[in-house]
Design goal:
Length: about 375
């Protein structure tokens, strides 16, 4: 993994790490308590060019790779998981346009996305359509001048803070997965309404909303990809997004390891620091192994993505391993803190709430395992082996 971090990436990480630990971390607890959206910090990330890491230079981005993007996600999440989730949400919407936008759409939107002057959200989930997107009920009806959308979405991150929203709607009722089309909808369109931010257990600074579409009209050129191709658009983009979630989980797990090691060195019981106790050493060793395992999976998947390789299996594995390992790491770090880890003033308590979502969004852990199993079956049928 660390062979991937050349001098350029190490310099990039050093600059971002200094910003995150000096400017982001100090206010993270307050923002969590107040459920405050980190608008100023998002603007600071944009000013550093970090909203367009993988956008080509011709569109004003940094033109770098996904390995660098994963590195950035780790550093931001280490400092504040809420800001990390906002950051990753930007890339989820942006990646849709980068991969599936027409030439005209890319020229129109990518420069703004690269500078952060333009934001885009990703609206896929509905009350009855989570992992099973074929159950989408939001409808888009074709007319002479464009499309009319009716229905609703839920758990749409950053929707109200965005300028555009990628919306998935059923254009061929009864066709299931093949009847879905992706649209780019202005956030200020007539007939579009937002709820108040949904109250969440963790990552409280990242706001998620319910959205309703009451006869929202968009032009024909608002389609992303091809009509009926929205299911493929969603799954392709989520393949990359799962690597981002793995990076977020790893960043939180890295912070948990640092907190556990620091507390074990400072806390004295029985006449010496508790890190001298074998029970504590076993937990510290396990956390370290869990963190390194999650990071290896994330960087491996990102490197494959940079080679334009199929990342369905690697991305699903990275998301599963990193998110599950993160939860175990934070839980063991809290155990090391004992009762002090269970109080609201403890940073570990916040990490415990923040990390739980990683096992759910962009596909639950169970969905990742099913994805991996299906791909293994295909590999075995094609090659007679899966290794």
């Amino acid at each position: 993994m660390f062979d991937l971090l050349d001098d350029q990436r190490r310099e990039f990480r050093a600059t971002l790490r200094e910003f995150c630990r000096n400017e982001v971390m100090p206010g993270a607890a307050r923002r969590d308590a107040e459920a405050e959206y980190p608008a100023e910090l998002v603007a600071r990330l944009a000013a550093m060019g970090l909203m367009g890491i993988t956008i080509p230079e011709e569109f004003g981005g940094l033109g770098l790779d996904m390995v660098t993007q994963v590195l950035a996600m780790e550093e931001v999440a280490y400092a504040d998981a809420s800001l990390g989730s906002v950051f990753a949400g930007h890339y989820l919407g942006m990646e849709t346009l980068r991969q599936f936008g027409s030439s005209e759409q890319r020229k129109r939107y990518l420069p703004g996305l690269a500078t952060g002057s333009l934001r885009v959200a990703f609206a896929l989930t509905e009350p009855d359509a989570g992992s099973d997107i074929s159950r989408i009920r939001t409808r888009a009806t074709a007319g002479p001048d464009g499309w009319t959308l009716t229905g609703g979405k839920t758990f749409t991150s950053n929707a109200r803070e965005s300028d555009e929203i990628v919306v998935f709607a059923m254009t061929e009722p009864g066709a299931g997965f093949k009847g879905i089309t992706a649209f780019l909808v202005p956030a200020g369109a007539d007939g579009l309404a937002f709820s108040s931010p949904i109250e969440k257990l963790g990552i409280r600074g990242e706001h998620a909303y319910e959205i309703s579409f009451d006869g929202v009209r968009v032009e024909r050129g608002a389609v992303l990809g091809e009509p009926g191709g929205g299911g493929r658009v969603a799954l392709e983009v989520l393949n990359s997004a799962r690597i981002d979630v793995a990076a977020l989980a790893n960043g939180v797990a890295m912070r948990a390891l640092d907190l556990a090691a620091g507390y074990a060195s400072a806390r004295v019981q029985f006449g010496w620091p508790i890190r001298e106790l074998q029970a504590i050493q076993l937990m510290l060793g396990e956390i370290d192994a869990l963190v390194q395992s999650g990071r290896l999976h994330a960087y491996h998947a990102a490197a494959l993505r940079d080679q334009d390789r199929d990342v369905r299996r690697a991305g699903a594995a990275a998301k599963y391993v990193a998110s599950e390992n993160c939860f175990q790491s934070v839980d063991k770090a809290l155990q090391i803190h004992g009762g002090y880890g269970y109080v609201k003033e403890s940073e570990i308590e916040r990490l415990y709430r923040d990390c739980r979502i990683f096992r759910i969004y962009e596909g639950t852990s169970q969905i990742q395992l099913l994805t991996i199993a299906k791909l293994l079956g295909r590999l075995h049928d094609e090659r007679g082996t899966v290794v």
